[in-house]
Recover the amino acids of this structure.
């Protein structure tokens, strides 16, 4: 990773480069940069990077001695690695007092021949620094690849990176869950260096290291390129395992729903391998992501969602299970989804909670789509998965094709819908419904008073005037006016139970439910 002062000295002729200060171990003295400074242009602290090799030229005059000592003090304060100075007067020698000053500061000082070109030295040092970094990043990447192909773990990879960078490291999931960390890694810190680990443009994890200040800043961009690919291989290997498991679970749930199996006892056994208990009662929920009227969904968003679901399905389902304290079986084939939700002992509030959480976890980024749900009855016994699926499919059909905006249908909702569907097959009855309801629907085109919507809301609220007015956000008198207008256009009385029955049937035939 580093270019050391000893490396530089070995490239120069020992007869021409003379050490003026006391000998040190230069094999551990890091050179991070090189700069040229003039002793007559003090101060220099703001112009000398830490770890810099300073090149300086002087006339070689006695009156410069105080300047040399001040120069050494400022170079040391800036964190310079060493100073190389040359004198125009080749017979001049740095005073013992100035040398002692540099020794006291621990700053190595060397003398170069006057004919040495600083530009050549600068270029050579910069090339050596870059070569050292390239060797380091190449060695680091090669070592990681060897670990991967030797089937080593992600923990082994973290230990290697931590050892080579000499800093505490860890690798986490995007949500911060730690997958592996070095022994000296503590709690996450705000000033950590972090690197996203991506696979197919999907962020799979994050590499983090502490004490990154000890890593040369110029190395950080190269470090990102060096680490991202080999570390992503571990995630790729795990994603292949996860995708294979998800595919097997998908196939299992689909076969269960469509009764595509020979022996149910064998399905019970296979389900136990996935930790599915088929001897519990379940409710089947079907979900379909559909585009709204006139919208043009971004298919790339759909594709990203498929990737996200496949890669994180286990985690998402696990979170839902822990929050709802229920067993869940799951199938996905975008844009269609099957969920078998375990029935608790009492009530069905868990179904609405599940739908709310599922939409939040699975579908929050599908802004161009809306979701339709079909819900079967609650299974009172085990083993009726195919029947539950068929009933949920019927409910989903009505949710997808609903003209009322209702996007969640239960199997119980379809009972009335099935009756209306049969009645709609009668051409005379259908014609009567469209004639009467068509008048109400078209009335709003010219007056902005939605009489058909008013009638449907009135029916849905059990013919209660107060509830209907509140639902429509209008005054009670305004509603009474609308109801009177409905009676006028249809020739039916809203006080007659038989007329109310016919209006309800006509409205549902007209709306497709």
């Amino acid at each position: 990773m580093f270019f050391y002062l000893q490396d530089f000295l070995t490239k120069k002729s020992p007869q021409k480069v003379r050490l003026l200060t006391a000998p040190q171990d230069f094999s551990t003295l890091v050179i991070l940069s090189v700069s040229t400074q003039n002793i007559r242009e003090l101060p220099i602290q703001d112009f000398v990077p830490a770890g810099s090799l300073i090149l300086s030229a002087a006339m070689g005059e006695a009156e410069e001695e105080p300047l040399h000592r001040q120069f050494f003090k400022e170079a040391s304060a800036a964190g310079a690695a060493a100073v190389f100075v040359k004198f125009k007067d080749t017979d001049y020698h740095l005073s013992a007092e100035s040398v002692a000053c540099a020794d006291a500061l621990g700053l190595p000082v060397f003398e170069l021949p006057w004919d040495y070109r600083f530009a050549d030295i600068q270029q050579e040092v910069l090339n050596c620094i870059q070569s050292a970094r390239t060797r380091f990043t190449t060695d680091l990447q090669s070592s990681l690849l060897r670990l991967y192909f030797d089937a080593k773990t992600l923990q082994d990879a973290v230990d290697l990176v931590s050892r080579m960078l000499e800093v505490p490291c860890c690798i986490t999931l995007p949500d911060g869950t730690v997958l592996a960390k070095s022994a000296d890694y503590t709690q996450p810190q705000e000033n950590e260096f972090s690197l996203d680990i991506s696979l197919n443009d999907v962020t799979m994890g994050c590499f983090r290291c502490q004490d990154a200040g000890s890593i040369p800043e110029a190395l950080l961009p190269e470090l990102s390129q060096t680490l991202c690919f080999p570390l992503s291989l571990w995630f790729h290997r795990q994603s292949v395992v996860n995708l294979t498991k998800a595919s097997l679970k998908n196939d299992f749930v689909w076969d269960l729903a469509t009764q595509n199996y020979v022996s149910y006892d064998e399905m019970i056994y296979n389900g136990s391998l996935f930790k599915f208990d088929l001897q519990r009662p379940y409710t089947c929920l079907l979900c379909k992501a559909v585009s709204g009227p006139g919208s043009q969904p971004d298919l790339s968003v759909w594709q990203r969602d498929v990737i996200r679901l496949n890669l994180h399905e286990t985690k998402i389902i696990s979170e839902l299970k822990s929050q709802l304290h229920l067993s869940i079986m799951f199938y996905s084939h975008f844009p269609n989804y099957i969920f078998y939700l375990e029935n608790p002992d009492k009530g069905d509030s868990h179904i609405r909670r599940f739908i709310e959480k599922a939409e939040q976890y699975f579908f929050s980024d599908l802004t161009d789509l809306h979701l339709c749900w079909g819900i079967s009855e609650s299974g009172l016994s085990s083993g009726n998965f195919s029947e539950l699926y068929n009933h949920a499919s019927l409910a989903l059909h009505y949710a997808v094709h609903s003209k009322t905006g209702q996007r969640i249908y239960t199997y119980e909702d379809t009972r009335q819908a099935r009756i209306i569907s049969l009645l709609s097959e009668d051409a005379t009855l259908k014609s009567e419904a469209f004639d009467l309801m068509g008048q109400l629907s078209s009335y709003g085109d010219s007056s902005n008073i939605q009489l058909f919507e008013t009638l449907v809301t009135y029916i849905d609220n059990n013919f209660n005037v107060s509830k209907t007015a509140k639902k429509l956000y209008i005054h009670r008198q305004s509603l009474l006016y609308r109801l009177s207008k409905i009676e006028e256009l249809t020739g039916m009385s809203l006080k007659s139970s038989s007329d109310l029955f016919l209006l309800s049937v006509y409205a549902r035939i007209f709306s497709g439910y």
